[in-house]
Amino acid sequence: MTDTATTRSLSSKPLIESNRVEGTKVYDPNGTNIGSIKHLMIDKVSGKIAYAVMTFGGFLGMGAEEFTVPWDKLNYDTGLGGYRTDITEAQLRGAPKFVSEVDDDYALQERNHERRRAEERALHEYWRSSYYWNQF
C-alpha cells in the first residue's frame, strides 16, 4: 500500500475544504509548532495546490510574518492533527519573501510574469522542492 493509500485509509474523509486547512498548525521534524496555514495558492489551470502561505510568530495574530512554502513540503500527520514538514524555524526566518500579486493590466502581467517566475524558482531552490509547474 502506498503512503497516499495509507493516508486515505486512515481518514474517513479524503477531501478537505480549504477553509478547514486555513489555521491548521504546521510542525517541524521534532513536532514543535512553527506556525499555521493562512491560505493556499492554487494553480488556476490545473486546480492543484502550489503553495501554502504560513504565518509565523506574532501574538494574537499581530506582528506575525508570512512565508510561502511549496505544498509538497507539507504532509498531513493524523497524530498531530496538523501538517508536518522538514522545515525548521531557522529556515523560515531566512526564507525568501514571495508575494503573489494580481495585475489587471495584461501588458503589465506579461512583463511581470518572468520576474514572478524567477522569484518562484528562487523559492523552490531555497526549499529544495520541485517546481510545481513541472508536477502538473
Please give the structural blueprint.
Elements: H1 3-10, H2 18-21, E1 25-27, E2 33-42, E3 49-56, E4 65-70, E5 75-77, E6 82-84, H3 89-94, H4 106-127
Parallel strand pairs: 1-6
Antiparallel strand pairs: 1-2, 2-3, 3-4, 5-6
What does this structure look like?
It is a single chain. The protein has 136 residues and is α+β, with helices and mostly antiparallel strands. A six-stranded mixed β-sheet has the order 4-3-2-1-6-5. Helices cover 29% and strands 24% of the residues. The chain is globular. 15% of the residues are buried. It has one domain (3-134): PRC-barrel domain (SH3 type barrels).
Structure summarized in a few sentences:
With 136 residues, the protein is of the alpha+beta class. The protein has helices spanning 3-10, 18-21, 89-94, 106-127; strands spanning 25-27, 33-42, 49-56, 65-70, 75-77, 82-84.
